[in-house]
Sequence to fold (285 residues):
Amino acid sequence: MTESEKTYQDAIEANIAVHSAMADEYNTAEPHFREESVNRVKSIVAETIKRINTDHVLDLGCGTGFMINILKSHFSNITGVDVTQAMMDKVDTSGNANIELINSDTGSVKLAENHYDFATAYTFLDHLYDMNPTFQNCYKSLKKGGLFYADLSPNAYFWDEIKNLDPQKEYDEIIKREIRAVTAKDEEIEAQFGIKKEIFTQAEHQKHVEGGLREEKVKADLEAVGFKNIQFIYHWYVGQAQLVNDKSLERSVRLERANTMHHYLEKSLPLSRHLFKYIGFIAGK
Fold:
């Protein structure tokens, strides 16, 4: 085994360890399960799949079934792939869709070629040591005209700006919170779940080692595999959490203001892209 192969395998084993420990609390601990986040993804999926058939969908890094819960309202056949069996044990397989779950690494799993109409990878790509084998697998498995939707991966441009700040200086709590999230998340996870910091870092290699996903590199990697018409998505701007959770305002007012701010920052891309915490994309075959 080469050093690269060993590191690739180390990341897989770290992910299994981390997510086995988190499986029981994952759906309540992770903020993307909140109603407003689920509704956002539902809207993106509903709009995106207007262009394709809705027979077969592939969910890479399916975890406890965040995407599967959304996809089974649209697709008759769903395949979910994840390395952590404890996470897949939490997937709700009820409903009319035929759901197949495969316990495997997404970069080496054997999938039918030219078979799927749609593929997804939600809050997952940063857990890979190397994204390219997964991109290649995804491309081969999609039918011509199929689409690949990935989202909620750490945005490198945002991480760059946070790391450039002096942690000794005084900032508003909005900024201090982001500094803690970038520099002390491993300590938080260790305290909450008993997961060693170095294992958590290995499990999120693209975030903690590579520093997040960078549009130019991701675009080049996707195009090298064969994907085209790549559209990037930026989400969750700095300060949005404070606005959404501002108890001095009615919830409907909070969400409306948060969406308005997002709309204007989105219109300001690429100038504003360093203000968004997360990046995603939709790519076609």
The first strand starts at residue 56 and ends at 60. The mean pLDDT is 95. Strands lie at 56-60, 77-82, 98-103, 116-122, 142-154, 228-237, 276-284.
